[in-house]
Amino acid sequence: MKKMITALLAAMGVSLGATAQELFENVDVNRFEQVISSDSVQLVDVRTPAEYAEGHLAGAVNINVKDSAFLTNALARLDRKRPCAVYCRSGKRSAIAALLLAGKGYSVTNLRGGIIAWTEARKKVVNE
To answer: Where does the record place the Rhodanese domain (predicted)?
Structure first.
């Protein structure tokens, strides 16, 4: 957890005087749905594998932000030239992931309210 906090603080310090809102876009369900409709967007579920298995957005890859190797895994799996759209259960973990990814040069959009907001808006999830 200490590494996560250190990484978060480092990501926040990437741009002096920048706020989290300037590092990544935090959007509602309808805007997020528009963002992920693009073929170029990499959709990332940052919840645990167990949460992902319970239901996730179609086409999402699972990279657990709670895993100490999150950044290593993300850097290995995600193309920095393509935008990322991240979500979690409520939007808190994905905001951390968005900060970390933005700190590494990714263009990131976060789903405010997470999959809870998504399902409350009666949007589709898939189970595998």
So the answer is: 37-127
According to the CATH classification, is domain 2-10+23-120 in 3.40.720.10?
Answer: no
Is there a catalytic annotation at residue 84?
no
Catalytic residue among 43, 65, 88, 108: 88
The label of the residue with tokens 């993300």 reads: 74
Helical pair 92-103 and 70-77, crossing angle rounded to 10 deg: 60
Give domain limits for the chain.
Answer: 2-10+23-120
Burial 100-117 (b: 16+ CB within 10 A, else e): bbbbeebebbbbbbbbeb
Per-residue pLDDT reduced to its tens digit, 67-92: 999 999 999 999 999 999 999 999 99
